[in-house]
Amino acid sequence: MPKESTTTDSLASELEQLRALVAEQAKIIEQLHERVAELEARLGKDSHNSSKPPSSDPPFRKPPPRSQRKASGRKAGGQKGHQGVTRALVGEADHLVVMALEGACTCGRCRSQIDVELLPERRQVIELVIRREVTEYRVVAGTCACGRRYRSDFPGEISAPVQYGPGVSAFAVYMTQYQLLPFERSAAVLDELAGIAISPGSLYRAVETAALHMQAPVAAIREALVAAPLAHADETGMRVGGALQWLHVLSTASLTAYFPHPKRGGEAIKACGLLPRFAGVLVHDHWKPYASLTCQHAYCNAHHLRELTAIAETIPSQRPWAEDMIALLCEANTLTIEARAAGFAALPAPMVLDIQTRYDAILDVAKARNPAREPKPGSRRRVRQSPAHNLIKRLSEKRDAVLRFVTDLRVPFDNNQAERDVRMPKLKQKVSGCFRSDQGIAHFADIRSYLSTLRKQSADIFKSLVLTFQGSPPMPRLAPE
Length: 481
Prior knowledge:
46% helix, single chain
């Protein structure tokens, strides 16, 4: 073979190798660009584009507004024509002060001697009076004519020389379990405002007693939630004795049930015993253990909006389809709100079909821009997919659960009900620190289930607690609204 031909073949072979190398490097560079974008997106996450709480936002970087609502252009505050609300007069005042006439008339007579009439105009001053009230019980003894001596008895519920009444115990539970104050600070409030010197240990014993008396209504609340046509579920981490446990919640607009467990997943769901029996529509944040439940599912679209916002802000090439999906979900939410306000039982079928068609079209565009990453030849390892690909896959495969709020007007757009219900226990931990024992968080879960339910039903919390310590806790409404 001529030398010139050999050189040409060698250069052609080397050129092909270089082209293959450049193509492989280009692919690696593209993968690295995607990885860098993912890491930058992770660093850029805060409460407006992820599930992170606002308290975790950096103090030196203010996040963009989290609301998807647009500015109305109106000034803040009450609008022109707004009907004002003033404090109403109390029907029966505790004290009445009649302002007598004073001074002298121009004729020289004293005004205090004039016959007067009470005018209808009234003014009242509302004051708060906190004071200790002590009731002392004494027994008597006497001898009958026959010589037998008798002694009266103290009431059965009064078993100690000094004890606290239902009001004090109710206040202890109200402050520690509802207002979420630590036991020591609640004891200080009683001491400083009412002159009742009480130990934190006594407050905790009141909590134990309340939890015992509330067993029947709490059990009834849980059974009512199992039978509810629609409910919300969520969970949050709680520190118990220095270790992490999970507080699960199942709730509706009028009922709440909390249950703590050392685990977060399927074991906890099974142990709590409510969700496996639930047969209605469950609204949740697409957490995987919920998928094993046989009920109907509705996904929280507030989570989807945050994920879409993160993708649109951090990956410019993904912005068009992500913003289109955000706009479609918000538009669909507005339509459902208007339909409920107008008294419709469901959206018109053509409107539902239009939303579903546009939803699918947006995802078709997104899939074309985010193909699945393929494993290397010969590799059996699972390939890590991009956040955008994972979100697109979920939105596509779980379309019925994502758009459940469109096809069933009973279903809300988001899972805010459950998220509001788990917010207060997190605030308890923030204000009072961790729970010291499993028993402490179990008591809190039961009492908070009962008090949260009463508050949703506009019941008098403190009065209900007093009745609870008198042995008659009020039973909340259990029928679905």
